[in-house]
Specification:
Elements lengths: L2 H5 L5 H4 L4 H4 L11 H9 L3 H31 L7 H30 L7 H33 L4 H4 L2 H27 L18 H7 L4 H35 L6 H20 L1 H15 L8 H29 L2 H34 L1
Helix pairs in contact: 5-6, 5-14, 5-15, 6-7, 6-14, 7-9, 7-11, 9-11, 11-12, 12-14, 13-14
Length: about 375
């Protein structure tokens, strides 16, 4: 299909997109001969060159995330020295949620960009929304636990091993997933109260089923929106609070240590600054979502003439920012550590040994067959 012709088949799209009812009602659709999904897409991304750039960005970020997370996870799994350490067990938990997030988000957004139309509301939309919500909450809980684990390691070193036993560590990791599932299930139950079978197949106002786009299709259910925003703000605040407390206490411990020329103190300060900067980068999608929620509450973008452009820009920015944390998490918490960097070459050597072993087994079989 010629996407340019499909997007410009009618000149009524911009006028229709200013109506709030077009998002949460199917009543107007039969009256006009136009592709609603293409019109909604065109309202957010009118430039074809921008679409091509976004396709390249999402493909590259998806491949990079899968490669970096996959290699780090395999390296940690093959290393017997690292698998038992609590911080690397938590890192594997973080990588697992990042992989699930990448698999559900990257291909979905890329497909919509290639098709030049928004994502339709339906089973995949709800599945993707459920998985992404679980993974995002699990990521926030895991980052919180990783900060507290570092605090115990540095400031409570005597009691570290007695506090973080293997059983407690497994319980903590299971609890992060359980809490994330419970929060998401409550959100889904509240959303399903506004669900109607007639809405299935209707294009949403976005390339991904994130909270605003799903709620717009369902008529903005207040109970779900209030619960989601309240829980999101509380979890984000607890993550920032625990991170700030943990690394501030570690910095204070480093400053109290008497070292010549204060070299260790400066190094500790640089380390704290690095991790705090990375936390801000990781939380950027969540903070952008909080700002977006505030804008939807205050100015109601759907009712303003330029509201679609504002909401569409925020939506695209959110999609791009959501792809960044899965790419940098292994670099921050994994490859930044010397132990993990040493484990990755061992993974490559293990792979090479496996290939050599297969070649030797094949040659032995050939020799035995020749003798027979």
């Amino acid at each position: 299909m010629d996407h340019t012709k499909d997007m410009n088949r009618t000149g009524e799209c911009p006028a229709l997109l200013s109506l709030p009812e077009i998002v949460n009602s199917t009543a107007l659709i039969p009256k006009y001969e136009f592709d609603l999904g293409s019109c909604l897409f065109k309202s957010m991304l009118p430039s074809d060159s921008t679409v091509k750039v976004l396709v390249c960005i999402f493909v590259l970020l998806t491949i990079l995330s899968l490669a970096v997370n996959g290699c780090t996870l395999l390296g940690l799994g093959r290393s017997e020295d690292l698998s038992w350490e609590p911080r690397f067990a938590l890192l594997k938990n973080l990588i697992l949620s990042d992989l699930m997030l990448t698999i559900t988000q990257g291909p979905t957004v890329t497909y919509c960009l290639v098709q030049r139309r928004t994502l339709p509301y339906g089973p995949w939309c709800l599945t993707q929304f459920f998985v992404d919500s679980v993974c995002i909450f699990c990521t926030l809980f895991t980052i919180t636990c990783m900060a507290l684990e570092r605090y115990l390691y540095v400031c409570q070193a005597i009691y570290y091993l007695s506090i973080l036993t293997s059983q407690r560590l497994c319980f903590i990791m299971g609890l992060t997933w359980l809490l994330s599932l419970c929060i998401t299930v409550v959100i889904m139950i509240l959303l399903q109260q506004s669900h109607a079978s007639s809405l299935v197949g209707q294009p949403i106002a976005g390339l991904l089923c994130e909270p605003d786009t799903v709620e717009s299709v369902l008529g903005f259910p207040r109970a779900s929106a209030i619960f989601r925003k309240l829980v999101g703000i509380i979890v984000t605040f607890l993550c920032i609070l625990s991170y700030s407390f943990s690394y501030l206490r570690m910095y204070q411990e480093a400053r109290n240590a008497v070292q010549p020329f204060q070299q260790v103190n400066r190094r500790a300060g640089n380390t704290i600054l690095f991790y705090c900067s990375m936390l801000l980068l990781q939380l950027m999608p969540v903070l952008l979502k909080i700002i977006s929620d505030a804008l939807w509450e205050v100015i109601s973008p759907l009712t303003a003439p330029s509201g679609w452009k504002t909401a569409g820009t925020l939506h695209i920015m959110l999609l791009v920012m959501l792809q960044v944390p899965p790419c940098i998490n292994p670099l921050i918490y994994g490859l930044h550590n010397k132990e993990v960097r040493q484990a990755l070459p061992n993974l490559l050597r293990w792979r090479k040994d496996c290939l050599n072993l297969n070649v030797e087994e094949g040659s032995l079989r050939t020799q035995e067959t020749g003798r027979e």
